[in-house]
Amino acid sequence: MNNIKSIKWGIIGAGDVCEVKSGPAFKKINGSELVAVMRRTPELAKDFAQRHGIKKWYSNASELINDPEVEAVYIATPPNSHAEYVKQVAEAGKIVYVEKPMARTYEECLKMIEVCKTAQVPLFVAYYRRSLPNFLKIKELLDRKAIGEVRFVNVVVQKTVEAKDQNLNNWRVNPEVSGGGYFFDLACHQLDALDFLFGPIKKASGFSANQTNSYAGDDLVVGNFVFENSIIGTGVWGFATNKISEKEVIEIVGSKGQISFPCFGDNSVTLEVEGQSPMRFEFDFPQNIQLPFIQTIINELNGVGLCPSNGESAARTNWVMEQICNQIK
């Protein structure tokens, strides 16, 4: 890119997700600088900054937001604080990049979109799989009809209860913080990926239940959904199965074959077509897995491309999850 404008970033919530997945990427991309980080515990904020070569650190979010050098803010906190931090960043006139799920509820998502529109600042959401090579390969296979006409989609996640699940500090299974149980933390990636591949879901329904009472959030979700292009999908997300039953796969079944792939496991994509030997594609990911996606943000801010995940697309995923999660009475 010629005459590229370098974007100076600050991070709110420089915790585990920032150590490898995202934080270092802001320093590796041409046109991106990481100038400040924030954690509520001063010692941890200082430690992160020193280890990653960042010149400024804060223990107060508003100080980072109002730092005149910071032009864009990456909000990497749990979902219960997303709406408020997005509001503060937008009202300060700065670019917003927020972790997934976008918020606890669809209503919170709509408020985030509105506050960014009012402030005339862009809003990006960290559904980074939209920029990874395996999902781009799946999209290419679908676009060239490698499996013919798509008949249906099936999502399966079956996991056992682990000791960490019952830890009271595990925000991912606390609905007041995350919006739900592991369904909200994991299924949002899968449903967003399907939105990327097939377009918006127009109708969804389902049931959810807490079968084991291991934590506050539901541990079983079963759903059905229909895309605007009339493709039908189903999903089972069980987080209290046995070890033998553990499984995680998305299957796209077509008139001539099928595509299957994990969302969280290895980086493979398997193509099976009638009359042909199966083909397995494997991909190398960057060490900092959000790097290709953050690159699309920098590209868009410089007017040379579009980031594939914004407030509108991410809010759709929250809407779908809410339609599916009808509590069994």
Tag the structure with descriptive keywords.
329 residues, alpha/beta, Rossmann fold, Dihydrodipicolinate Reductase, domain 2, 2 domains, 8-stranded mixed beta sheet, 11 helices, 14 strands, globular
Query: Helical region count?
Result: 11
Tally of separate domains: 2
How much of the sequence lies in strands comes to: 15-25%
Q: H/E element string?
A: EHHEHEHEHEHEHEHHEEEEEEEHH
Structural class computed from helices and strand pairing? alpha/beta
CATH topology of the largest domain: Dihydrodipicolinate Reductase, domain 2
What's the end-to-end separation, in Å? 57 Å
CATH H-tier superfamily of the largest domain: Dihydrodipicolinate Reductase, domain 2
Q: What is the annotated CATH architecture of the largest domain?
A: 2-Layer Sandwich
CATH top level of the largest domain?
Alpha Beta
Descriptive overview:
This protein is an alpha/beta fold. The protein has two domains: 7-128 and 289-309, Rossmann fold (3-Layer(aba) Sandwich); 133-283, Dihydrodipicolinate Reductase, domain 2. It is 32% helix and 25% strand. The chain has eleven helices and 14 strands. The protein has helices at residues 16-19, 25-28, 42-51, 61-65, 82-91, 106-119, 133-143, 175-178, 182-198, 291-301, 311-324, and strands at residues 7-12, 32-38, 56-58, 72-75, 95-98, 123-125, 150-158, 201-209, 220-227, 232-238, 247-254, 257-261, 269-273, 279-281. It has an eight-stranded mixed beta sheet, covered by helices on one side. β11 (247-254) and β12 (257-261) form a beta hairpin. The longest helix has 17 residues, at 182-198. The protein starts with 6 loop residues before the first strand and ends in a 5-residue tail after the last helix.
